[in-house]
Amino acid sequence: MSERKILIVTNRIPYPMKDGGNLAMHAMIDGYHKAGWQVHLLSMNTTRHRVRSELLNKVFAHLQGFSWVDMDNEVTMGGVLKNFFFSTEPEHVQRFHTEEFETKLVEVLKDFRPDAVQIESVYLTTYLPAIHKHSSAVTVLRVHNVEYQIWQGMAGKTKNVLKKYYFNSLAERVRNYERKAWKDYDLLLAITEKDAQLIHRLEDVARVIMAPFTIEADKVRPPVQEEQWAGYHIGAMDWMPNKDGMRWFLHKVWPKVHKAAPGFRFYFAGRHMGTEFLETKLNGVKCEGEVEDADAFIADKKILIVPLLSGGGIRVKILEAMAQGKIVISTSKGIKGIEARSEEHYLRANSPEHFAKWIKWCMENKDAARKISENARALVLEKYERGKVMSIITEEVDYLVKIRKHH
């Protein structure tokens, strides 16, 4: 196993470790590395998630190799309209495809000669023909989300007729694209069991295994003794489901929460925090913007609030919070993909009234609430521990590599 080589290709540099996407990619990279594989990381250094050049050589110095290509992937109205009228592919695919990146990919394939290539975004399937042409490596796709469901959800929520039409059209194009893409890989790593089942139901694919986000048990901070019984949320606000969920929580949910539990305080933070959030003026609410140390922001607060109304995949922040002994109050959409039961491992709230009810209950029943957080911590350490999950993944990829080499 230690002689195996894997090239991992990402549509952004998974750094800093402040949002779910970066944490999920980093967990996979680190998992292969600690399993004894030689890992080369090839990333796009995009305009939306730019990492300064002076940091790049230090970030992944422990890997066998790390390459990147600076890319402009800004969304432009001209690009969106051109794609909408003149292409059947999702706009994301065209935005992430450049000749420069393909040239670098081919160069790495020839020099590194990987046994497996793992793609961390379905939209990078556009590079699969080049991979097949220049390598015999086993190809793996990490399915972070079933992407078309996100856009279907956006279409269902918007009241704007033009936006609804566009989101529905985009959802259909994404659905067609990813269903075709799934069939082109040797192995799919679905981040939730429900996603794995959906993929099997929609397409006759070669292999799908569940590969959830993982926690390193020995690195999880133990619960802090002097926690405030306050709520928090942390997430990148350039992801639309986070933005929409926070708007809903502040404008629809918070008035009922504040009335039910006047002493309760709520803090939220994240990257790309827009002016509308930074200027929030609600009694009991504080926006921290982008925080330097996410762990420090989280450490002294007891209750994670997850007001997500759309989106797919698995919420990395929920697993981290559970592992740290936090109480999680989440919508059904937010908890999706985690094998947790309401009132045993977390508290489900799908309406403003439910959020208000459970927050008030936590403040008045702290011992019972702590028991739920203890159950959640035990669940995460049992089912989402990195070593256990990575052992399953690496064994499967290794098996496929052996078959490929014998043929």
Percentage of residues assigned to helices: 40-55%
Mean pLDDT: 90
Shape: globular
The Rg value, from CA coordinates, equals 21 Å
- How many helices? The count is 17
Tally of strands? 13
In whole angstroms, how far apart are the ends?
19 Å
Order of helices and strands: EHEHEHHHEHEHHEHEEHEHEHEHEHEHHH
Q: What does it look like?
A:
This protein is of the alpha/beta class. The protein is built from 17 helices and 13 strands. The strands form two sheets. A seven-stranded parallel beta sheet has the order 3-2-1-4-5-6-7, with helices on both faces. A six-stranded parallel beta sheet has the order 10-9-8-11-12-13, with helices on both faces. It starts with a strand and ends with a helix. The model has no long low-confidence stretch (mean pLDDT 90).
Topology:
Elements: E1 5-10, H1 20-34, E2 38-46, H2 53-59, E3 65-71, H3 77-86, H4 91-95, H5 99-112, E4 116-119, H6 128-134, E5 138-143, H7 147-157, H8 161-182, E6 187-190, H9 193-202, E7 208-210, E8 228-234, H10 240-260, E9 266-269, H11 275-278, E10 285-289, H12 294-299, E11 301-306, H13 316-323, E12 327-330, H14 332-335, E13 347-348, H15 352-364, H16 366-383, H17 386-406
Parallel strand pairs: 1-2, 1-4, 2-3, 4-5, 5-6, 6-7, 8-9, 8-11, 9-10, 11-12, 12-13
